[in-house]
């Protein structure tokens, strides 16, 4: 039996693997097992799915269909998102998508345009 790291959000010891993610059953936090695109140190650099450095105001393209939680809407692959804002946390891009509204995205699902 392998030893998995505790949840970075709530320090729960009951984390489990689900595909390429680790999941916490207590707080529902999900994170990548080995995420080379993200460094969680303060002032860290946020990179897109192919390693390009992202900055506030950039335009990105969604690389995977993303279901919108709590809605039947889907952000389709190829959707351009303009004027992003980088924030701290698991979903590190704050943006506004035409037809859907304000939402947060993970940098691993976008590519810099």
TrEMBL record:
InterPro entries, A to Z: YjdM, YjdM_C, YjdM_N
Annotated Protein YjdM C-terminal domain residues: 46-112
Database matches in Pfam families: YjdM, Zn_Ribbon_YjdM
Entries under SUPFAM superfamilies matching the protein: Prokaryotic SH3-related domain, Zinc beta-ribbon
Gene3D superfamilies, per database record: 2.20.25.10, SH3 Domains (2.30.30.40)
Coiled coil start-end: none
Sequence ranges assigned to domain Protein YjdM N-terminal in this UniProt record: 4-32
Family the entry assigns: Belongs to the YjdM family.
PANTHER family associated with the record: PROTEIN YJDM, PROTEIN YJDM-RELATED
Name of this protein: Phosphonoacetate hydrolase
Gene source species: Pseudomonas matsuisoli
């Amino acid at each position: 039996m392998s030893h998995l790291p505790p949840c970075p959000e709530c320090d729960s010891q009951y984390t489990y693997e689900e595909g390429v993610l680790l999941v916490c059953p207590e707080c529902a936090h999900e994170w990548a097992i080995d995420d080379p695109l993200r460094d969680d140190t303060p002032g860290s650099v946020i990179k897109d799915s192919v390693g390009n450095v992202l900055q506030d105001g950039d335009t990105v393209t969604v690389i995977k269909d993303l279901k919108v939680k709590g809605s039947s809407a889907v952000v389709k692959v190829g959707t351009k998102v303009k004027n992003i804002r980088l924030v701290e946390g698991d979903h590190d891009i704050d943006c506004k998508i035409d037809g859907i509204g304000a939402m947060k995205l993970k940098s691993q699902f976008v590519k810099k345009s």
